[in-house]
Design a protein that fits this description.
It is a single chain. This protein has a seven-stranded antiparallel beta sheet. The protein has four helices and nine strands. Strand 7 and strand 8 form a beta hairpin. The protein has about 190 residues and is of the alpha+beta class. The protein is globular, with a radius of gyration of 16 Å. The termini are far apart. About 30% of the residues are buried. About 25% of the residues lie in helices and about 30% in strands. It has one domain.
Length: about 190
């Protein structure tokens, strides 16, 4: 999935992922921010070393410009060694890898010509500075769904991370904190 795993020296196993989880959890507090979560529901699918977290947002759907903006934010706020950027017309169609074109540009994703045309799916993957592990984020245009892939098998930690991604609060006092649950009567 990531070029990161093609090299044996970069091999990640469950023990490595669990050590990172313990390290990151020890650096965060259980404080909550004084706001309602943007996460309506999270489904966690375990598949070997990789974990898939499907997120249903408790807000309106998002569009292409917001997807590119989110990816650009992650490029600067948390992702290093970006190893994959893909797009596809629809969720069930084959994706096109853009990493080679991306490596040739100097202005970042906001000025990346290949993202100027709207598509159905956008994904970016690299090494999270926060989690110290690979993360791939997938956005689905005109939906309320986000998908995260990572070796980190810890729903609480990923909830904090995803809330931080959605709120764009990396580097702030609200980073890696939980928000209040969405009331049952809201979306």
């Amino acid at each position: 999935m990531f070029n990161f795993f093609k090299s044996k020296k970069n091999k990640v196993d469950k023990q490595d992922a669990n050590e990172v989880v313990r390290d990151v959890n020890s650096q965060t507090t259980e404080e909550t921010i004084d706001d309602i979560s943007f996460i309506k529901e999270m489904k966690h699918i375990r598949s070997g070393v990789w974990q898939q977290y499907d997120i249903l947002l408790a807000a309106q759907g998002y569009g292409w410009e917001m997807m590119v903006g989110w990816a650009a934010y992650m490029e600067s706020a948390d992702l290093d060694a970006i190893s994959t950027i893909t797009v596809s017309e629809l969720a069930n169609m084959p994706s096109t890898e853009l990493i080679d074109e991306y490596r040739k540009i100097t202005g970042g994703l906001k000025s990346f010509k290949e993202l100027s045309r709207e598509r159905g799916v956008l994904a970016i993957g690299g090494i999270s500075r926060t989690l110290k592990m690979p993360v791939k984020i997938v956005w689905f245009n005109q939906t309320r769904v986000l998908r995260f892939f990572t070796p980190v098998d810890d729903e609480m930690l990923l909830t904090k991370y995803i809330e931080t991604v959605i709120r764009r609060t990396f580097g702030t006092k609200d980073a890696m904190k939980l928000a209040k649950p969405v009331p049952d009567n809201e979306q």
